[in-house]
Amino acid sequence: MTAKLISGTEVAKAIREELTAEVTELKGKHNIVPGLVTILVGEDPASQSYVAAKNKTAHALGIYSEQVTLDPDTSEKELLELVDKYNNDPKINGILVQLPLPKHINEANVLYAIDPDKDVDGFHPVNVGKMVLGEKCFLPCTPHGILELLTRSGVETSGAEVVIIGRSNIVGKPIANLMLQKREAGNATITLCHTRTKDMAAHCRRADIIIAAVGVPKMVTADMVKDGVAIIDVGVNRIGKASNGKAILAGDVDFDAVKEKASCITPVPGGVGPMTITMLMKNTVQAAKMAANLI
Ligand code: NAP
User: Fold this and answer.
1) 14 located within any domain
2) Ligand 1 close to Cβ of residue 53 (< 6 A)
3) Contact indicator for 241, 235 with CB cutoff of 8 Å
4) Looking at the annotation, which residues are catalytic?
5) How many domains does the chain have?
6) Tens digit of pLDDT for each residue in 111-151?
7) Strand arrangement of the beta sheet that strand 161-165 belongs to
8) Which of 43, 82, 109, 157 has the fewest Cβ atoms within 10 Å of its own Cβ atom?
9) Distance of CA 194 from the midpoint of ligand 1 (Å)
């Protein structure tokens, strides 16, 4: 079997078109322009490119965006004051503080200071708690994107054996929680694996769906999966540099070998990555509607 490609680029494009229409309608009918601010502390090149991509996408969709870049030695107090300023700025519906922050700043203090109604990354404990309870909230962007990829690609999750590798707060734990809920792209039976898991291959071999969010290139090999499995590869690993200086990326799944056994698979790049930014935009539009009592 050669797997059907689940193109995050294509799915993200479709969602962005829907969002553009929604933003146009918000402006035309209600004179509302959703607003996003991204805050970057320091000069990490990967973070700079993520933040630039987020602002560029916001702009393309008609979302107002501000990009704030702070010195690497900005104090936690100064950052908290800036967050507070945007918490009280009616033009801004979504606040995104790019992670990781420099070591002298306590990440939790900053993330918890964001107004939960503007927490478009979905990392505030209020939103995490609501997500676990299945209440309306901002879903974290990468897991939200995975749900959309599964739904829009017609992957059946109800009753499926889903093996998730990786238990981070931003991917593994939330996607496990979401897929066990009684919801679209949910109702699955979940196994969550990590470094202490005894026999990872045995778990993977009985999976109908594998979601790999590990950060180890090509860790999931063909001998670890059953025929017909659906694969969502979240991993983004830089494994070298091309002659043009661009990073060569690999996922957590050995794509070339596993695609011969899988029914469908996401590529890296072009799989989960484009969905993450798109779901940030979706959350920003949702925040603007919530602020105007439209939902
Ligand atoms: P993370 O916080 O580093 O967590 C990695 C998880 O994988 C941990 O739970 C760890 O287990 C587990 N793990 C690591 N090595 C393992 C091994 N050999 N066997 C079993 N489990 C192992 O990572 P993350 O933030 O979730 O990111 C994971 C990957 O996804 C990275 O490549 C990241 O770049 C990528 N990512 C992509 C997007 C996107 O939009 N495309 C978004 C987020 C992340 P322990 O808990 O036991 O240490």
Assistant:
1) no
2) no
3) no
4) 54, 98, 121
5) 2
6) 999 999 999 999 999 999 999 999 999 999 999 999 999 99
7) 4-5, 264-265, 230-233, 209-212, 161-165, 189-193
8) 43
9) 9
The protein residue with its alpha carbon nearest to ligand 1, atom 12, reads 166
- 189 within ligand 1 shell (Cβ under 6 A): no
Mutate to test the pocket of ligand 1, among 148, 194, 254 (most ligand atoms within 8 A of CB): 194
Average pLDDT over residues 34-52: 95
Sheet architecture: strand order including 35-41: 64-70, 35-41, 94-97
d(CA 290, CA 294): 6
Q: Atom 48 (ligand 1): residue with closest C-alpha?
A: 195
Collapse the DSSP code of 133 into the 3-class scheme (helix H, G, I; strand E, B; otherwise coil) and give the result.
Answer: helix
Q: What is the pTM of this model?
A: 0.96
Q: What is the pLDDT of residues 62-109, one digit of tens each?
A: 999 999 999 999 999 999 999 999 999 999 999 999 999 999 999 999
* Averaged pLDDT, 285-295: 96
Residue 53 domain boundaries: 31-115
Q: Is the CB of 194 under 6 A from ligand 1?
A: yes
Domain presence at residue 24: no
Q: In the chain, what is the greatest distance between 2 CA atoms, to the nearest angstrom?
A: 56
Residue 15 falls inside a structural domain: no
| 125 lies in some domain | no
CATH code of residue 44: 3.40.50.10860
